[in-house]
Amino acid sequence: MRDYRGTVSTPGESGSDTWQSESTHREALQQELLELGAWLVEHPRAARKNLKPIRTSKPLEPGVYFNQGTGIVERVYRPQRIALGSKMFRVNSDPAAPVQELRRRVMEGRG
Q1: Coil, strand or helix: which one is 25?
Q2: Cα pseudo-dihedral 29, 34, 36, 42, rounded to 10
Q3: 57 DSSP 8-state letter
Q4: Alpha-carbon 78 to chain mean position
Q5: Which of 75, 70, 101 is nearest to 87 (CA)?
Q6: What's the farthest any 2 CA atoms get from each other in the chain?
Q7: Is 51 helix (H, G, I), strand (E, B) or coil?
Q8: Average pLDDT over the chain, rounded to whole?
Q9: DSSP reduced 3-state for 61
Q10: How confident is the model at residue 4, as a pLDDT?
Q11: Helix crossing, 99-108 with 26-42: angle to 10°?
Q12: How many CB atoms neighbour CB 32 within 10 A?
């Protein structure tokens, strides 16, 4: 992130009240999901081995999914259609599952 002078800074270094109030909640959770997606991109065999692939054109049911094309782990709270040919994997059927449970399932399998 760049400040008004063009200096690169991280959100933690900025004096943003929003960052400081949200860093332990929503933004921190989103960051953990992004890191989990990055790990899956680096270890593509783990997705194929430990997660359930989505092989249908039906709408996605609520849950947590890994999109291999974008490398993002996302929470889906209501049925949603996806593009044909998308490589999606179901991580968990509970969209509110804690990140620790998602991480365990991704790295260790169904368990």
Answers
A1: coil
A2: -170
A3: S
A4: 16
A5: 70
A6: 50
A7: coil
A8: 79
A9: coil
A10: 53
A11: 10
A12: 16
What are the structure tokens assigned to 102, written together?
């998602």
- 26 CB neighbour count, 10 Å cutoff: 10
The C-alpha atoms of residue 14 and residue 26 are separated, in whole angstroms, by 18
Please say whether the beta carbons of 77 and 95 come within 8 A.
Answer: yes
**Hey, what are 32's tokens?**
């953990």
Mean pLDDT to the nearest integer, 37-53: 88
Quote the CA–CA distance of 111 and 96 in Å, as a whole number.
Answer: 19
Would you state the structure tokens that stand for residue 23, as one six-digit string?
């860093």
Torsion of Cα atoms, 43 then 73 then 103 then 51, to 10°: -70
pLDDT by residue (tens digit) across 21-32? Answer: 555 556 666 888
Q: Could you tell me the pTM of the whole model?
A: 0.70
The dihedral sign for the CA sequence 79, 83, 84, 88: negative
pLDDT in the model for residue 111: 42
